[in-house]
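<instruction>
Derive structure tokens from the sequence

<record> Sequence and structure tokens follow
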Amino acid sequence: MSLEEAVFPHHRFLRGQPWFAALPADTQTRLLERTLTLSGRKGEVMLAAGSPVKGWYAVLSGLVKLQSTSCAGRVSAFLGVPDGEWFGEGSVLKTEPRRYDVIALRDTLLLCLPRAQFDDLLAHSLPFNHFLVAHLNRRLGQAMTIIEAERLRSPEQRVALYLTRVFWQGRRRLVLSQEELGHLAGLSRQTVNRALKTLEQEGLVSLEFGRVAMLDEQALAAYAVRPEG
């Protein structure tokens, strides 16, 4: 690792993106110079609903949840984003204020690809567009899965679903706290605890020191979508 990469982790992240190497050298330099970082402590609102959208974001380290609040005051977290993943593409493609809060579930460092650079890549880079389309398609699949889970699945299945690669694609090992899992699944901590004990009895997860680890990913995914009864 170079000294620059050690001092500026967002440079290392950008250089690792599949579309970055295909960019002209001057575009690469401009991106590295103009990309920003934002840090937040656990529980902090890092990006507030109603605020202007300044760019496209990625999680360099930590974990965030995307959370909306209804007119009646009901809070709903609809997505968790771990380190290495982008979020907020729908917001930066529009010109309206942000529709949801981005809240740190752990101490977190974000990267911001400014809107001007995002728009330039969208207009001129085919590899970037291919990456963005694939990313949007995955997010659409996640959204449909969430809708189905809330209507058709039991609490145990919803908890199992939020531990699968539907939401944590590419991660070799996922460890969440029960509190984090409750935030993401939209269930009380008591309900999550009961569901996890069921999953533990099934041999699908392990529970140690308040952390949840997957033991059998394939069986967990099958459990999450099996028909009731």
Q: What stands out?
A: Residues 126-152 form the longest helix (27 residues). Residues 38 and 187 are 29 Å apart (CA to CA). The two ends are 53 Å apart (CA to CA).
